[in-house]
Every structure is written in C-alpha cells, then in structure tokens.
Design goal:
Length: 149
C-alpha cells in the first residue's frame, strides 16, 4: 500500500459524527485547508501532494488507522536509522527514537490488523521489519547491559 492510499483509508476511518465529511473533519482537526487534506489522498506522481510525516502521525492519532500505522512503522524504521548517529549530541533525536519504539510496541500489541487479513507481500514485509527490529533491539539491550555494569 502506498502512503496516499493509507492516508485515504485513515481519513475514511477518522472518528466523526454521522453525516460529517471526513476530509473536512481532518482538515479542521489538523488545522490545514480542506484542499490539502484532499490532495494527501491522491498520488503525488499525479495531482496529489505528499503528506508530511508529522501530519501523518497527527492523522494516525485521530484515526487509529491500521493501514497508516503500518506505513508509519515501516517508514520510521528506515528514516530514523541514519539520524540515530547524532543521538548522543542531540537528546531530541534519542527521545524521538524512544517514542517511535514505544509507538511500534503499542501498534504491535493493540493497533494492527489481524495477520491473516494481510496480503502475503505485506506479511513478508512485516516479518522482515520485525526481524530487523528484533535484531537491533537485541544489540541495543546488550549495549545497555554493558553500560549498566
């Protein structure tokens, strides 16, 4: 699933009163124009506009969309790695990494779709991502043990 598709699904899933347009609700809650919220649902290769990651996180918070959560988890793991080298100089990057790990744990426990509902390719990607997280977490735990001695 591409980002704009996950965003469209999240917008449809946003909590709202019956009869309310979900795009207008999202625009109001995120304090953006309705036209921008509509554009986020379209392919950026066409007439759409790519949603900024901070806005995608905000949208996830108000929609609790499994599709967007999956995209954010997969995207976060790839985006954070190059920046983590600066964690010792910049506490906010370290804090952001910790927050993402906490979000990933909550997603794995509460927010994801049942595995059986995922397409085979998505299950494979999820499996590979979890194995990567597991390996990195194991290495980080070993470092913590050494540092705590």
């Amino acid at each position: 699933m591409q980002l704009h598709e996950a965003v469209a699904e999240a917008i449809r899933e946003v909590r709202r009163d019956p009869g309310q347009d979900p795009v207008k609700v999202v625009a109001e809650r995120l304090q953006v124009s309705g036209s921008i919220a509509y554009k986020w649902q379209e392919d950026p290769a066409g007439s759409g506009e790519k949603i900024p990651i901070c806005r995608a996180r905000d949208l996830q918070a108000i929609s609790n969309s499994p599709a967007l959560a999956e995209w954010l988890l997969a995207g976060s793991l790839h985006q954070v790695q190059p920046r983590m080298g600066t964690a010792h100089q910049n506490g906010s990057v370290q804090d952001e990494g910790i927050a993402m790990l906490e979000s990933a744990a909550k997603w794995l426990k509460y927010g994801r779709r049942p595995i059986a509902e995922l397409a085979h390719a998505d299950r494979q990607k999820l499996r590979e991502t979890i194995k990567t997280v597991q390996a990195c977490a194991g290495a980080a735990l070993a470092e913590l043990e050494v540092a705590d001695k």
